[in-house]
Write a structure and sequence with these properties.
2 domains, Rossmann fold, alpha+beta, OB fold (Dihydrolipoamide Acetyltransferase, E2P), six-stranded mixed β-sheet, globular
Amino acid sequence: MSAAAPAAADLEVRAVVKRFADHTAVDSLTFSVTRGSFFSILGPSGCGKTTLLRMIAGFIQPDDGDIVIGGRSMAGVGPNRRPVNMVFQQLALFPMMSVGENVAFGLARRGVPRAERLRRAEAMLERVGLGGAGGKRVDEMSGGQRQRVAIARSLVLEPTLLLLDEPLGALDLKLREHMKIELKQLQAAFGTTFVYITHDQSEALVLSDHVAVMNRGRFEQLGTPQELYYAPATAFVAGFVGANNRIPGRVTAAEGAIAEVVTAGGWTVRARMSAPLAAGAAAEAFVRPEVASLGRSPGELPPGQPAHVGLVESLLFDGANSAVLLRERATRFEFRIALPQTGRYADLKVGEPVHFSFDPERAVCYAAPAA
């Protein structure tokens, strides 16, 4: 039986470089995006993600490398001739036009007859849940509705790629959470390849089939949201994706895959090494708040795990995301633990002594980044 053919790529970025004077914004990037998938580029401000997106769109040209969309090189192809549309954070809808005219705008530029473009615009509005809204003014629509109008305006042109540049950044928190679900459902319904950039790791994890974590013009890791969260490849990814307790120190001993790391203040923790580390090496251990256990006595902790003592510094109530912030008693090192949703520790008091532990196999240790 023959192996399944690899999925076709709608986007291939091949050794692309972009420099601005002596600054390399995008540094020899190579990756591909599978047809019909939701791909996110996640990174802090200044990491090069917007520059990369603008090169894919054709607004700026790479200094080296090639960008291939739908199997065709985009070298020398202007932005207006690429099978790409873009949704910006500010949406750029035309207030003097109706909703339907906004959606039909690109079709008008292509010379589609008025009756046909308005019919297609109304059909697209129906698909994004705005059926019958074509005659409304843009300023009569809510923030979430305007977002869907902008997406409809792009999708009606049937692009190979839809590029989204932090499109939820201007929305309030509740609407942003709602639009994350809507965006994911829209992409699945249309099957169009989405390339999405954001600095918000929650957006990237919730929305995406694959996520690339970008730092200083390069990808630190490219994988599924689960791979990034549970198996971060570098200390940067561990610190950037999801909440994590970062514990810097030096390796004092290693047994099998487990390193003993001692902080500058003398607190000793044990964590699984991502790669072999020698005694004396500078290291960073990372422990997610949800893998740590809490108890008012050592007997409440899971057996076999190294136990620590802390003092409650503050209680961070956020419903299902509630946590307690501790200080390790001897060194005053800060450590965050997710609270169980049972409400068992709802009566904790600031200053109260508690015991905590975590399985070293569920903590991870990396060589400290070079200064």
